Amino acid sequence: MDQMAALRAFVRVVEAGNFTRAAASLAMPKATLTKLVQGLEAHVRTHLLARTTRRVTVTPDGAAYYERVVRLLTELDELDSTMSSQQAKPSGRLRIDTSALVAVHILIPALPNFHARYPDIQVDLGVTDRAVDLVGENVDCVLRAGDIVDQSLIARRIGQLAFVTCAAPGYLTRYGEPRHPRELEGDHFTVSYFSARTGRNVPLEFVRDGEHIEIYGRHRVATNDGNAFVAAAVHGYGIAQAPAFMAERLIETGELMPVLSDWSADGVPIHVVYPPNRHLSNKLRVFVDWAADLFAVDAPSSR
């Protein structure tokens, strides 16, 4: 039995919750992974996992064993990083997840610069606005806007997204330009964004001279996708607070017009998030530092 391979297989089964997802994340046949875990259980002479037809759970002995194995593998990875050339030349697969808006308009256009610096890192980019199971789906990190509610994760704030209140010229021709945020509660329509995690609509927020106003307003279109949200604003469905890095380009082309410019919209922090038991490898570390520089330039906190 390859004990190191068996230890890594066991850890992935625990983190993924079943053998099928664990095998897929390791690019290993399920039968091979099963044999490794069975060999490990035979080696330690105890059941580490409890298997049913629907799920895999960790036994009390398995839970204690898992915690020690994770620490051991982390220390080994750190030792390998210190003693190998990877310290100077990071390499390998890096699985990242982010929203479509960030992927299309910020991350993908800048990736040639990243690969020019780190040509041996393969970026696997998951694009979704839904909440991602970082451990179960074997994701190294996610880029997410907003507050991080899961306190079990490690989050590094790398910037802040600014927003611009705007609407399509055709909408303003039909409904007029609002002079105060409260007008959005009765005389206007808004484009609404709802959270993929909670299903709740996110309010428009306005700040001026210490006054803070939250507006939900009436909407004919609500979406949980950033690109669809901006497209709905461009097509005249209502007033929206769109990310500045995208809205300003559309304002320059005349597809959108700024409104309520004497009120500022609250910015939203953006974080790189990763699991606490995931070793911050060289490839992940250089990506996090690069992303922090990228968002400082492409998604500034003020206009």
What does this entry look like structurally?
- It is a single chain.
- With 303 residues, this protein is an alpha+beta fold.
- It folds into 3 domains: 3-83, Arc Repressor Mutant, subunit A, CATH 1.10.10; 86-161 and 269-298, Periplasmic binding protein-like II (D-Maltodextrin-Binding Protein, domain 2, 3-Layer(aba) Sandwich); 163-266, Periplasmic binding protein-like II (D-Maltodextrin-Binding Protein, domain 2), CATH 3.40.190.
- It has 9 helices and 15 strands.
- The strands form 5 sheets. A 5-stranded mixed beta sheet has the order 4-3-5-15-6, with helices on one face.
- α2 packs across α3 and α5 (100-117) crosses α9.
- The model has no long low-confidence stretch (mean pLDDT 84).
Task: Name a few traits of the molecule.
303 residues; alpha+beta; Arc Repressor Mutant, subunit A; D-Maltodextrin-Binding Protein, domain 2; 3 domains; five-stranded mixed sheet; 15 strands; LysR family transcriptional regulator; LysR_HTH_N; transcription
Give the secondary structure arrangement, pairings included.
Elements: H1 3-16, H2 19-25, H3 30-44, E1 49-51, E2 56-58, H4 60-83, E3 92-98, H5 100-117, E4 121-127, E5 141-145, E6 154-161, E7 163-167, H6 169-175, E8 189-194, E9 201-202, E10 204-208, E11 211-215, E12 218-223, H7 226-234, E13 240-243, H8 244-252, E14 257-258, E15 268-274, H9 282-298
Mean pLDDT across all residues, rounded? 84
The biggest sheet, with number of strands, parallel, antiparallel or mixed sense and barrel status, is:
5 strands, mixed
The CATH superfamily of the largest domain turns out to be: Periplasmic binding protein-like II
What is the N-to-C order of secondary-structure elements (H for helix, E for strand)? HHHEEHEHEEEEHEEEEEHEHEEH
Q: Low-confidence parts, pLDDT < 50 over ≥5 residues?
A: none
According to DSSP, the number of beta strands is 15
How much helix is in the residues? Answer: 25-40%
CATH topology term of the largest domain: D-Maltodextrin-Binding Protein, domain 2
User: How much beta, percentage-wise?
Assistant: 15-25%
Strand order in the sheet with the most strands: 4-3-5-15-6
Structural class: alpha+beta
CATH class of the largest domain: Alpha Beta
Total helices: the number is: 9
CATH architecture heading of the largest domain: 3-Layer(aba) Sandwich
Number of domains: 3
Report the C-alpha radius of gyration, rounded: 24 Å
Distance from first to last alpha carbon: 59 Å
